[in-house]
Amino acid sequence: MKVFGYHLPGMLLLLVWGLLWEIVGQLKLTFLLPPLSEVIVTFFEVIGTPAFQKAFAETAYAFYSGVAFAIIIGIPVAILMGKSRLLDELLLPWVNVVLSAPLTALVPVLMVLFGFGMKSIIITTTLFAIWIIILNSRAGVKQINRSLVEMALSFGASPIDAFFKVYFWAALPGILWGVRIGVIRAVKCVIIGQLLISIVGFGALFELYSANFLMAHFWAVLIVLFALAFSISEFLAYLERRVTYYAAKR
Amino acid sequence: MVVSPTNSAVAEAPTDQFEIAVSTRNISKNYGDVEALRDLTLEFPRGQLNSLLRLSGCGKTTLLKIIAGLLEPTSGEVKVNGQKVTVPGADRAFVFQDFALLPWATVMRNVAFGLEMRGVAKSEREAIAERYIKGVGLAGFKASYPHELSGGMRQRVGLARALSVDAQVLLMDESFSAVDEQTRRKCQEDLLSLVQNENNTFIFVTHSIEEAVCVSDQVAILLLWPSRVSEIIRPISFRNKGVDNIRGDPEYLDIVDEIWASLRMYVE
Description:
Low-confidence stretches of chain A: none
Helix content of chain A: over 70%
CATH class of chain B: Alpha Beta
Number of helices of chain B: 9
CATH architecture of chain B: 3-Layer(aba) Sandwich
Strand order of the largest sheet of chain A: 1-2
Oligomer: heterodimer
CATH class of chain A: Mainly Alpha
Helix content of chain B: 25-40%
Order of helices and strands of chain B: EEEEHEEEHHHHEHEHEEHH
């Protein structure tokens, strides 16, 4: 960004927003928004507490398990859909329907089925992430350059060789793109799930803080979550860029 | 120069005096209601460069893909060395119009890919690939990735890949159409010396009249919708005059003019 001919780093804008927050907070317009400095102080207090660390561990566990299931199930299903016309026509309408359905409404049902604990949260996370992974990976498989397929065939590649040495790598950018969006959805979901079920992880913590009007604590935890979600997404975007670089269209 | 007029006359065409590497017999290909090829019979002599000259949009590269075994003809058959073929085989290798290189693999791995698929051990296939990489003039680029190369260099990688599997028949699908004009001329000259030095049979699809006449021992002209052979031309006098003299040779210019005159009516 350039202001009056001076080159300013992009992060500077973030500081301006932080300053605005501090000012609004100091004006004590509403108890909902404590000053940023107070939030930051609380942040360092909070991350030391066992309650926070327990919530963090539980959330991370639910998140990684949910995402792992979504990827392990989603990618093979997507590849099969991309390769088999029958399977594609059988499953695609459902994937599209569930993708746009408000899955949050299903959480109470899942709670009845799987109890009020970790299991329900993991399943909810998987359900949030898996559909977009399937849809994008399928698109990646479908968009494989036709001549790469013909090239593999014309050089006598066995189906297994063709799959692992050509198709998979050619579809990788699409697959990673799906995984990234799936992971971002999973971050949202793991919190929504915990809020709804609200006895484990950050959900319990949010519940506790907001019930006691501990707004600085509330914001501190929220900032942790934002930062986590952002860095996970940026890391995946970085991976994606690296792969797309090699798999770029000529 | 010998000109034989129609596909019905192929039997007494001058190909009789050559050993035939590839022949197509009464090939037809329909895509639904669209007839792409009709009753196409052609013979390709061994060790020569055979062009299929086509008008833009005509049957595309259907015939080449049928010979490669990538497409199944609706009727008719393809014989390579007298054996009927229906699937891709080690006797034929394809050079693609858009190069079809693996973007995530180095030049070395791309060139060795055909051998890798045939289960040749790594050290052996890299030794072979190295020879052909040098052969097409890319010795310094074996660790480069395709996106780091120019169009002409990429096509030479594709050519080296096809040569390294030691196929007798090389199928080239408008191989030089995606590179710029100057590179294209260089590619054509390289191809001419390749035909002289190697004993492969080349089948070369192009829509450039000049390119076809310049590089070919035999030019088969395909007509549109459905594609069929209109004539077969075998330039003879300038073939051995050397690369530099071909484009100025009177016979070369005559043939180019003649082909254009006969095709002009089909181009709107």
